[in-house]
Each structure stands twice: as C-alpha cells, then as structure tokens.
Amino acid sequence: MTTNTKITFIGAGNMASSIIAGLVESDSAVEITVSDPNESQLDVVRAQFPNCHTTTDNHQAVSTADVIVLAVKPQVMQVVCEGLEPSVQKTKPMIISVAAGVSESSLSRWLGGELPVVRCMPNTPALVGAGMSGLYANSRVSAEQKNLAESMLRAVGVVMWLDNEDMLHAVTAVSGSGPAYFFLVMEAMQQSAESFGFTPEQARLLVQQTAFGAAKLAMESVDSAAVLRAKVTSKGGTTEAAINDLQASGLEGIFDSALKAAANRSIVLSGGQPAIEKS
Ligand SMILES: NC(=O)C1=CN([C@@H]2O[C@H](COP(=O)(O)OP(=O)(O)OC[C@H]3O[C@@H](n4cnc5c(N)ncnc54)[C@H](OP(=O)(O)O)[C@@H]3O)[C@@H](O)[C@H]2O)C=CC1
Ligand SMILES: O=C(O)[C@@H]1CCC=N1
C-alpha cells in the first residue's frame, strides 16, 4: 500500500470497524474515509479512529477513492451500489465487497459494469489482527490491485485466494461465521463453569485462557486436532467421559449440519437455491 492510497468504507458497522482497526493498528499509511447514514454509528468511528474522515454522503465518500470497501448488509447492497454507480463509473476504483452471498456478477451489474471487483469474506477477529479472509477477484482486477487487496486484508490477518467464486459460500460457513460458533461454545462452557460455583469473572478467565491456549497449541503444533485431542484424553479419564457425552449427542453431525445451513443461507442470499446436502 502506498502512502496516498485512499480507501473508503461504505457502512460503518461491525465488519468495517474490525478491518479499519486492523489497518490502523498495522500502521498502514492509508487515508481512510467511512460513510454511513447513521450519525451515531459515525460517532463510534470518530471516537475509535480519530484520523479517519467520516461522512453520511456516500457520493462524497467515494469521489476520490482508489478502493471502495462495501460493508453493508447483503439486503441493502443493490440500493447502495445503484446509488454509487454514477460516481464509480467516472473514477473506476477497485471495489471490495465483504457481503455474504452477493455475487460478483450482481455487484458488477448494479455498479454499471466494467469495474475491478474483489469479493472478500473476512471475519471479526480482524479487529485484533487475527482475521481469516477468503478472496476472489474478477478478471478486471490487475495484478497490482490484487496485491493491494491482499495487503489490506493481510494487515488484519491471513488471506486465502480462491479461483472459484462458489467456494466463498463455504468460506463464509467455515471462517466468516466461524467465530460465532467458538463464542457459542465459550458461552456454554462459561455457563456450565458458573454452575459449579465460579463467579462469572472466574468462569470467563478459565474458559478464555483455555480457548486461547488450545488455539495457540493447534497453530504451533505439527499435530492434527485429532492427535492433540488424544493427548488430552487419558484412557478411562475425565476428558474421555466428556468427549463420549459430546459424541453421544452427535456433535460432529451438529457441526456439519450447522455449517451447511450457513453455506445454504449464503447461496440463498445470492439468489440461488440451497444446494449443499449434509454429509
Ligand atoms: N459481522 C461479521 O462477522 C461479518 C460480516 N460480513 C459482511 O459484512 C457486511 C456488514 O456486516 P456487519 O458489519 O455485521 O453489519 P452492520 O449492520 O454492523 O453494518 C452495516 C452498516 O451499514 C450501514 N448502512 C446501511 N445502509 C447504508 C447505506 N445506504 N450507506 C452506507 N451505510 C449503510 C448500517 O447502518 P444501519 O445500522 O443504520 O442500517 C450499518 O451501520 C455484511 O454484508 C456481512 O455479510 C462478512 C464477514 C463477517
Ligand atoms: O452472519 C452473517 O451473515 C455474516 C457473514 C459471515 C458472518 N457474519
């Protein structure tokens, strides 16, 4: 990224804030503008990122942008893109959409066509520089623009390029929505810990440090998750009792079903019919 790269975010919600936080934290010397109709949302942005420009006017926000990050809900994307069409057709910036299930062909059509479009499926751990993003570029994205998109998302985590746009449904199901699955498990474990008599603070510490330690160990070890699990599970011991209970409840099937529900929802958001069957 060069010092004068101008990046405009349309939508100042959870995902935009997560990426902006990572970019700001990474000291990337970029000029960031954020546009959102909601002034109170912009107040949050101003408080968190005092060096970002903010506006409620999408046209003004994109007028000199090199890169536009579309970070609104899929349901309002068409209206937003059609509103931006006259501006972007003048300046032809690179478009990066983080929306789940909004296809490159729809984005291109709504924006008036002939634009470099990157679809990105990031996740909220971008907020702490530990994001995971799947990226897909249309044929109008130059090698230089690909590098720029990659370096933006690498500033907030790890990047995986995809040749097949359809695989973004699966990335959405695994890593886009994925943090929520782990948080749900953490919530459930914390509730259970509290039922033993721990305070909420104690329960949170026990669970968070365990989740962090398990993730760090999995990242740093050459062993697979299955091997790492076996190393915790003493024969006839406590872990075995818990794992047997989880597996008797059909845990693997529950996760397979949940991930496929997410992927199918992504397909439906893109205008298709749910097509992915449970294993
Ligand atoms: N949250 C996540 O973990 C992830 C989200 N995504 C994708 O990111 C996108 C945004 O999600 P998320 O950040 O969670 O959603 P949020 O609702 O938090 O953010 C969207 C923001 O866009 C604003 N907005 C609405 N209309 C306009 C408009 N016309 N112009 C500019 N801004 C507008 C909304 O304002 P208001 O609230 O007033 O409507 C809101 O502040 C979605 O498409 C989602 O699929 C992708 C990966 C992960
Ligand atoms: O729930 C959603 O639709 C978005 C996409 C992935 C994570 N959040």
From TrEMBL:
Protein keywords: Amino-acid biosynthesis, Cytoplasm, NADP, Oxidoreductase, Proline biosynthesis
Domain named Pyrroline-5-carboxylate reductase dimerisation: residues: 165-266
Domain of life of the organism encoding this protein: Bacteria
Entry's Gene Ontology BP terms: L-proline biosynthetic process
Subcellular location: Cytoplasm
Function: Catalyzes the reduction of 1-pyrroline-5-carboxylate (PCA) to L-proline.
Family as reported in the entry's similarity comment: Belongs to the pyrroline-5-carboxylate reductase family.
PANTHER family in the record: PYRROLINE-5-CARBOXYLATE REDUCTASE, PYRROLINE-5-CARBOXYLATE REDUCTASE 3
Protein's UniProt name: Pyrroline-5-carboxylate reductase
Annotated source species: Leucothrix arctica
